[in-house]
Write a structure and sequence with these properties.
Blueprint lengths: L12 H18 L1 H14 L7 H5 L4 H26 L16 H25 L4 E3 L3 H38 L3 H13 L5 H6 L4 H18 L3 H17 E3 L10 E3 L7 H22 L4 H6 L10
Parallel strand pairs: 2-3
Antiparallel strand pairs: 1-3
Helix pairs in contact: 1-4, 4-6, 5-10, 6-7, 6-10, 7-9, 9-10, 9-11
């Protein structure tokens, strides 16, 4: 069982707090290159230092910005590996899946499924209001984006999944000895991490329903499937396809995508549509494909302590 792989008498909850601090510190170290680049650009251009992250992100060419920002996630992932191995004496596999090895077919199926839904959803919106979009495609910058994005965006999304659906989910299971508490806490924390996104400032806090709801969806995938393979594939597809397909002036990252959304953002039914319609459809598909059952026990049941072999 996935959660039980981290539930051991010696795996005290304080270790997860210490480990989280270490991972966050590693992420901050990974942000040093971007900070140095901002200082260098500010000094060379004789302009004032940017007062907020949005201004800093717009200082550089989009592909360079994406590269510099994504570096921090590589450092954070290294931090996860170090903490899991040396603080908790577990393997990276143990916070990935309950299977004997990572099931890459699950990762690829989830990636392909959500990529398909994402493209179809965009086409529906595009043909409904084509005047809201402009052709943004430039071959060379786009190809560079494909290379950078295909390598670094999966590292970013995998880091987030390993932190929330792997490391912290097992950590909260250690604390509560049940399944519902890790699901709720990791979903709330995951959603809250997006509160400073520019989309929130534009659309209002109602969009937090989407972020927190997505956290619950990914947590449900993890608990029902006894591993994070499906959430790894979904999250990578969500961020990569989004970065390649469409950008806007009010999104977190401006990229050399195929289209640019020129509309004024507003929070309507489209905010809750994925939560109440799309995600349940995906859960139905996954249930049929992987034969999920016993939902109540897997999402809300008790966990058991695995005795140490030492």
């Amino acid at each position: 069982m996935f959660l039980e792989q981290g539930i051991k008498p010696e795996n005290k909850f304080w270790k997860y707090l210490l480990g989280s601090v270490f991972i966050i510190t590693a992420s901050f170290i990974g942000q040093i290159p971007f900070s140095i680049a901002v200082l260098y650009k500010t000094f060379n251009s004789n302009k004032s230092f940017p007062t907020d992250s949005d201004a800093a992100l717009k200082m550089f060419e989009p592909n360079l910005t994406l590269f510099l920002i994504m570096i921090s996630f590589a450092f954070a992932f290294a931090g996860i590996y170090f903490v899991v191995k040396y603080l908790h004496h577990q393997t990276l596999l143990s916070i990935t899946t309950s299977r004997s090895k990572i099931d890459w077919s699950r990762v690829l199926f989830s990636f392909g499924l959500w990529s398909f839904f994402s493209v179809i959803s965009f086409l529906v919106v595009y043909f409904k209001s084509p005047e809201n979009f402009v052709w943004n495609f430039k071959l060379v910058p786009f190809l560079i984006l494909v290379v950078i994005g295909s390598i670094l965006i999966p590292i970013q999304t995998s880091t987030e999944e390993y932190v929330f659906r792997g490391y912290l989910m097992q950590g909260f299971a250690n604390l509560a000895q049940n399944r519902w508490f890790p699901l709720v806490l990791t979903s709330l924390i995951f959603g809250s991490m997006h509160i400073f996104n520019p989309e929130v400032a534009k659309m209002g806090y109602v969009i937090m329903i989407y972020y927190i709801g997505t956290g619950f969806f990914l947590g449900i995938l993890t608990l029902m499937d006894e591993g994070i393979e499906l959430s790894l594939g979904f999250h990578a597809a969500n961020n990569l396809i989004g970065a390649l397909l469409v950008t806007s002036d009010w999104s977190v990252f401006q990229t050399h995508s195929v289209f640019k959304d020129m509309s004024e953002p507003s929070a309507g039914f489209d905010v809750i549509l994925p939560i109440v319609v799309i995600y349940p459809i995906l859960l139905f598909i996954f249930t049929k494909k992987y034969g999920w059952n016993n939902w109540k026990e897997k999402l809300t049941g008790k966990t058991s302590i695995v005795k140490s072999s030492n």
